[in-house]
């Protein structure tokens, strides 16, 4: 059974930092990518960042590329999202998702291409 478990969310003041983790288990190959998405109240879920397990190729939404960093720890099968200089508009539930790279994926930010999802972790940034 494939499982993705997010952790590291919480309440932080504007300007603060958090590091989210996504622990991956049960996927039988290493040819996949992990995407981070977020959904704020009343808004659609949006793609934040993505990283391939092989090669560590990274992608970012324009809104976060200057203050979020995604990384792999392949030994721990964990992907991290380091978030600094947080703003109230970063408040959302953050989800990680896995996409099998046995086929080309053009739109890493499209939630419909992902095969498995975690349950999410809440990030709240106070002003």
Q: What features would you highlight for this structure?
A:
127 residues; mainly beta; seven-stranded mixed beta sheet; four-stranded antiparallel beta sheet; 0% helix; globular
Question: Could you describe the 3D structure shown?
Answer:
This protein is mostly beta strands. Helices cover 0% and strands 50% of the residues. The protein has strands spanning 3-7, 10-13, 18-25, 32-39, 46-52, 58-60, 68-73, 78-83, 92-100, 116-117, 121-126.
* Count of individual beta strands: 11
Percent of residues in helical segments?
under 10%
Overall residue-averaged pLDDT value: 96
Largest sheet: 7 strands, mixed
> What is the CA-based Rg, rounded?
14 Å
State the distance separating the first and last CA atoms: 40 Å
* SSE series: EEEEEEEEEEE
Find the structural class using helix and strand composition. mainly beta
Strand content bin = over 45%
Give start-end ranges of low-pLDDT stretches. none
Outline type: globular
Helix-strand blueprint:
Layout: E1 3-7, E2 10-13, E3 18-25, E4 32-39, E5 46-52, E6 58-60, E7 68-73, E8 78-83, E9 92-100, E10 116-117, E11 121-126
Parallel strand pairs: 2-11
Antiparallel strand pairs: 1-3, 3-8, 4-5, 4-9, 5-6, 7-8, 9-10, 9-11
């Amino acid at each position: 059974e494939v499982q993705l478990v997010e952790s590291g969310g919480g309440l932080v003041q504007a300007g603060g930092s958090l590091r989210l983790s996504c622990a991956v288990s049960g996927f039988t190959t290493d040819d996949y990518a992990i995407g981070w998405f977020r959904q704020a109240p009343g808004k659609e879920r949006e793609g934040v960042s993505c990283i391939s397990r092989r090669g560590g190729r990274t992608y970012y939404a324009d809104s976060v590329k200057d203050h979020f960093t995604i990384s792999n720890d392949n030994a721990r099968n964990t992907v991290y999202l380091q978030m600094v200089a947080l703003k109230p508009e970063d408040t959302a539930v953050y989800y990680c998702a896995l996409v099998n790279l046995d086929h080309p994926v053009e739109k890493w930010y499209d939630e419909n291409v992902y095969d498995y999802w975690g349950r999410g972790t809440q990030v709240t940034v106070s002003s």
